[in-house]
Amino acid sequence: PILRLLEAQLQDQRREHEKEMEALKNLVDAMQEELEKQQQAFLQTLQLSPEAQVEFGLQQEITRLTNENLDLKEMLEKLEKNEKKLKKQLKIYMKKVQDFEASQTMLPTERRQHDRNMQVAVQRKEKDFQGMLEYYKEDEPLLIRNLIT
């Protein structure tokens, strides 16, 4: 079993190595093609007159700048989309924070009432009272909720 495991690992490593070698070979081929194109362009410019060489150089630079400009525009569009997405998320989170703060401002009164109810419960345990519970009408939903929980 160990020998099979080692063989399997060795084969996996061999496959990964072959994939890496293939990728590197493709990269080298692409770089060689690019180098040949640049060499041909260089040889062509050497055969041109000085004015034509300057014009060719300018055309090459304009092409390079145009491509760079397009890349920058694409990046800008992505960033603008991301900004819109983040602004939407911020609005959602701001709303959640406002809701949370609103619930926190209401909680202290509920906490006081809950603490009062807890004190009543503690008193009952200590003194063993039995009987009716007196409460305000507006406290009824809170009492029901506390009884259920």
TrEMBL record:
Top-level taxon in the UniProt lineage: Eukaryota
Regions annotated as coiled coil: 3-103
Keywords recorded for this protein, A-Z: Coiled coil
Name of the protein this chain belongs to: MYO5B protein
